[in-house]
Amino acid sequence: MPHLPVLLRDTINLLVLKPGSRNIDCTFGDGGHSRAILQSAPNVQLLGIDADAENIIRAKKQKEFKKVILVNDNFRNLNKIALKNNFTDVDAILMDLGWSSTQFEKSGRGFSFLRDEPLDMRLGVGELTADEILNKWPEEEIGKILREYGEERNWKKIAKAIVDYRRGKLIATSGQLVEILFTLRLGQHGKIHPATKTFQALRIAVNYELNALKQALPQAVEILKSGGRLTVISFHSLEDRIVKRFFQNQIKHLKIITKRPIVADRAEILANPRSRSAKLRVAEKI
Ligand SMILES: C[S@@+](CC[C@H](N)C(=O)[O-])C[C@H]1O[C@@H](n2cnc3c(N)ncnc32)[C@H](O)[C@@H]1O
Fold first, then answer.
1. Nearest CA to ligand 1 atom 7
2. Closest to 54 (Cα-Cα) out of 102, 17, 13
3. Distance 138 CA to ligand 1 centre (A)
4. CB count, 10 Å around CB of 83?
5. Among residues 59, 66, 76, which one has the least CA distance to residue 215?
6. Cβ atoms 159, 133 nearer than 8 A
7. pLDDT at res. 142
8. What CA–CA distance (Å, rounded) separates 283 from 286?
9. What is the CA(171)–ligand 1 centre distance, in A?
10. Which of 31, 67, 148, 254 has the fewest CB atoms nearer than 10 Å to its CB?
11. Distance from Cα 28 to the centre of ligand 1, integer Å
12. Which residues in the chain come in under a pLDDT of 50?
């Protein structure tokens, strides 16, 4: 299934894009939101960033993104990237966090518990991989990331099972990890697959995702012009909490536009199940 941009109409409406405005898409992905930004007003300028080189290489070959400045980097370096490309006094900044359906289904990097692939899980060029965590980290450290980044209530049992398994052989693939989880017969967490939280925890740890977000948010406020808007779409409570608290703490610099996060309606959730956990928050620089 191709990547369907989530909460697209709300995002574009709330960004209030004007002709000739300067915008940054910090999470270019497959360019779904970027495409809509480009079409929303004449002469829109756009800087697109993505940590995954494959996304940027693909976009550079697409005619429709010819006028977009495309940068393969982590948004934790937002200020530096913006300055280098003369993108200061920006009208709108978008972060659509996490990873795209294309990465999930086609990257071959072990993001999906539905595929049997090497456990890499890097979005960019970091050194840490998921298999290193699983095969080398002490049981307590594995338990800690499962608890903190996965909010996995069975973190203790899972960490122990991982360490027991690796005494016999290396954990090299997503299929092996799913096998370990299934052997525990932990049952479903409501409607989600029993491997969801473990995979989420590993991806966050491998990519230092929460730190990148914490580092990028103040930089976004710095490069926005007065009246410019920052829009963040998050997919789990850890990210959403960071965004919510950041907006509240920036009361001197930001006006919160979305008092409550915007979520997908039934029709969108049916068409795109990924959208069920999406939360959109928008703030405007004072
Ligand atoms: C949900 S997808 C974005 C999809 C995009 N909005 C679209 O409609 O096609 C998130 C993207 O952000 C990228 N990403 C995640 N964390 C990042 C970071 N810290 N810096 C830069 N890119 C990041 C991922 O590689 C992925 O391509």
1. 32
2. 102
3. 30
4. 11
5. 76
6. no
7. 98
8. 9
9. 27
10. 67
11. 6
12. none
Q: Provide the 3-class DSSP secondary structure of residue 195.
A: coil
Please identify which residue in the block is written with the tokens 């940027």: 56
Mutational test site, ligand 1, from 7, 37, 50, max ligand atoms within 8 Å of CB: 50
pLDDT at 198: 95
User: How many whole angstroms from 123 Cα to the centroid of ligand 1?
Assistant: 9
The CATH T-level fold of domain 8-102+209-285 is Rossmann fold (3.40.50)
- pTM attached to this predicted model: 0.94
- Of all protein residues, whose CA lies closest to atom 15 belonging to ligand 1? 98
Task: Specify the pLDDT at position 190.
Answer: 62
Ligand 1-lining residues (CB < 6 angstroms): 3, 5, 27, 29-33, 49-52, 55, 74-76, 96, 98-100, 103, 123, 212
CA distances from residue 104 to 6, 42, 113, 123, 167 in whole angstroms, order as listed = 15, 33, 9, 11, 29
Q: 8-102+209-285 and 107-207: same fold? A: no
Fold of 107-207: DNA polymerase; domain 1 (1.10.150)
Listed by start position, the domains of the chain span 8-102+209-285, 107-207
Cβ pair 233, 96 in contact under 8 A: yes
Q: Residue 114: what pLDDT?
A: 87
Distance 31 CA to ligand 1 centre (A): 9
